[in-house]
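Weekly modeling sync, notes
Attendees: AB, CL, MP (scribe)

Item 1: holo prediction request
CL wants a bound-state model with flavin mononucleotide before deciding which constructs to order. AB pointed out that an apo prediction alone won't tell us much about the pocket. Agreed to run with the ligand included and paste results into these notes for async review.

Input as submitted:
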Amino acid sequence: MKSLVSYYSRTSTTKKLAESIAENIGADVEEIIPKVNYQGKIGYARAGKQALQEKIVEIEEPKHDPQEYDVVYLGTPVWASKSATPLISYIKQNEGKFKNVKFFATSAGGGGFDSTFLQLEKFTNVKPQATLGLTSKDVKKDLYLDQLADFIRG
Ligand SMILES: Cc1cc2nc3c(=O)[nH]c(=O)nc-3n(C[C@H](O)[C@H](O)[C@H](O)COP(=O)(O)O)c2cc1C
């Protein structure tokens, strides 16, 4: 089964999880790079505002075509209880190309996953086969391996 892990990460927490998933299943990896600056305090404020607006932003040209994959894993940090804008922009840009999906997200407080996953379901128009929401702390401390195994199997 051909799998792709597509993710956006601002401060590398979701990136760590994405790479861990890809390594476990031998998937190709697509890091979504926005053409918008989300760094620093101003970038943080911009990120929160745009997430609430579900703003579609410009992203660098992706390297892989999601249509060529049996399963696409989509990952994002939670921003204001929603998906980060680069991920929904990527989904929008690839509308109709997702057959089977799994969603994963990281958040500081461990909240906002349900609303984020519902939003991703709305944008992909596909019900996920599995979802995985983890706190940044658990990702950093590698306290997610059992949940990761369930997610991959699910
Ligand atoms: C603009 C913005 C909004 C955020 N909103 C939330 C939130 O609503 N709930 C939460 O628990 N964490 C929130 N966070 C924290 C991130 O979800 C968390 O640090 C995440 O693990 C970062 O992932 P990354 O390193 O892949 O960017 C927010 C972070 C940013 C930048």
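Recorded for review: The mean pLDDT is 97.
Action items: CL to compare against the apo run; MP to circulate these notes.
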